[in-house]
Amino acid sequence: MKQEEIIKTFNFNTSAVEIELKDLSFIKELPKLLGMPHKVSFYQLLWLKEGEARHRIDFHEVVINSDQILVIAPGQVCEFDTVSEYEGKMILFTDSFFSVSETDSNFLYTSQILSLVKQNRVVSICPLLIGNLMQLLEEEMKVDTDKFKAGISQSILRIILFDAERSLNANQSIMIQNIASDFCNAVEKNFKKNKRLEYYTNLLAVGEKALSKEIKELTGDTPKVYIDKRVVLEAKRLLAYSSLSVKEIGFVLGFEEPTNFNNFFRKHVHQTPIQFREGTIK
């Protein structure tokens, strides 16, 4: 079944170094594109130098102010604020660009700033630090590609992400544990085909009680509720931004019978899929 989407999906431009720096003014230059629902296949790190922006990400408004950063993950549906007055920069980068070492790979999947569990956290950052780092990255982007460019760019990005993570750790008493992060990543890869908790406890070789304790502490939800919420989010995305029928969406999400999908969606959203879709039409 071909999934026809009615929103634009952007992939990273082919490049020897998969990182790019843009001025946020480019958002206002493309209001009919970036001000409308769209998604990308790479990470977007936004820094506001001045002003306030109200972006809409996966059906939620996210407000970011001066001297704050925000990370948008691959696959998230965004509508950027094209009206408010603000200045800043945006770093675009792929997961393969950042994951040059085992430490980086672990950070990518266990950090709070890039967490699948609590996405789109707005983090305050030292204006002097972020300003200098953005300037350094901007200068590095002007250099012809050589054997040092990727490493220098990665180092600058790493400092920005690590400093943001430090801020989150200073304000959060709960750290993402290995079991919890492994569970969240497993759900992300398998939720369309596997919605039963037993599948994940077997996959991770962990007891249900131990898993429930970790996930409850991290998210406030049980593992089963976490799985269901991920299914609901994908259902909302497909209902709002694809031309698939409700029956086809249910099939994509692993529901063999349309009635089962309808009942599942209504239980969690308190609307039928058709009602939700009609409510998102502008």
TrEMBL record:
Gene Ontology molecular functions: DNA-binding transcription factor activity; sequence-specific DNA binding
Domain of life of the native organism: Bacteria
Family annotation (InterPro entries): AraC-bd, Homeodomain-like_sf, HTH-like, HTH_AraC
Domain (HTH araC/xylS-type): residue spans on this chain: 181-279
UniProt entry keywords in alphabetical sequence: DNA-binding, Transcription, Transcription regulation
Protein name: Transcriptional regulator
